[in-house]
Design goal:
alpha+beta; Beta-Lactamase; single chain; 11 helices; 2 domains; 5-stranded antiparallel sheet; Arc Repressor Mutant, subunit A; elongated
Length: 238
């Protein structure tokens, strides 16, 4: 056991305990952020420990083809190269549900010193699935590195999708009136219509009127759904 804790791999000189600690810190940081844009730089910094200096993340809706997948993040303009050129590796990663190196798909194709690419499958059942493309020169592609990178990428993917994008947040900012926002805030705290009415000095019927307006604007049908959507959009906090 003592020997394993000081195990190192090509591309990462840190002992295993340090690698696990770094992953833990990343997961805690991702869980704490409420800004989608902060998730990807944190992930990129983590995977750089293993020699991956470029990152792109894609999301494929259930009805979409790989070529139609949305780009959630990319530090490169070569989107097509990440999609059409890697479709076989992406499909293999989905099938195996584990990261796949391009050198596995085309043995001998990756020459020494050339860029290696790791395709990391990302599963998100309600919204489809996604994948990350990590690139680097002679990066660490050991089973341990792949496992840690996989956990980091999946966590980042899930967290990013749970947060509103900057565009949607800006659009949502003026979606509800101050009164509607206040009512959903009280509803999120478990208060009844009568309680909220007493707090705001309006009738319970008026509370329901504003709640119905909020539901319509948020395109939901229940009060619980309205609260959930308002939280997701960052309009109210729990």
């Amino acid at each position: 056991m003592e020997h394993n804790e000081h195990l190192t791999h090509r591309g990462s000189a840190a002992p295993l305990t340090a690698q696990v600690k770094a992953l833990t810190q990343l997961l805690q940081g991702i869980a704490a952020t409420d800004v989608r844009g902060a998730v990807w730089p944190a992930l990129k910094q983590f995977v750089a420990r293993y020699g991956y200096l470029r990152l792109a993340v894609f999301q494929q809706a259930p009805s979409q083809s790989l070529a139609d997948a949305a780009t959630l993040y990319s530090d490169s303009d070569h989107r097509g190269e990440h999609v059409e050129g890697h479709s076989r590796a992406v499909l293999e990663a989905f099938r195996a549900n584990e990261p796949v190196a391009m050198s596995q798909i085309n043995p001998g194709a990756e020459e020494a010193g050339k860029v290696e690419k790791l395709i990391v499958p990302l599963v998100d059942k309600p919204s489809g699935k996604g994948w990350a493309v990590l690139c680097g020169e002679a990066p660490d592609i050991s089973p341990l590195a792949r496992s840690l990178v996989h956990v980091a990428a999946e966590t980042a993917f899930d967290r990013a999708l749970a947060l509103p994008s900057s565009e949607s947040a800006a659009a949502a900012a003026g979606l509800l009136s101050p009164r509607e926002t206040a009512i959903l805030g009280w509803a999120a705290a478990g208060r009844t219509d009568a309680d909220i009415g007493a707090e705001l000095k309006i009738s319970a019927r008026t509370v329901r009127f504003h709640t119905d307006n909020a539901k319509r604007k948020l395109r939901v049908t229940t009060r619980i759904q309205a609260v959930t959507e308002a939280v997701r959009l960052g309009l109210i906090k729990l």
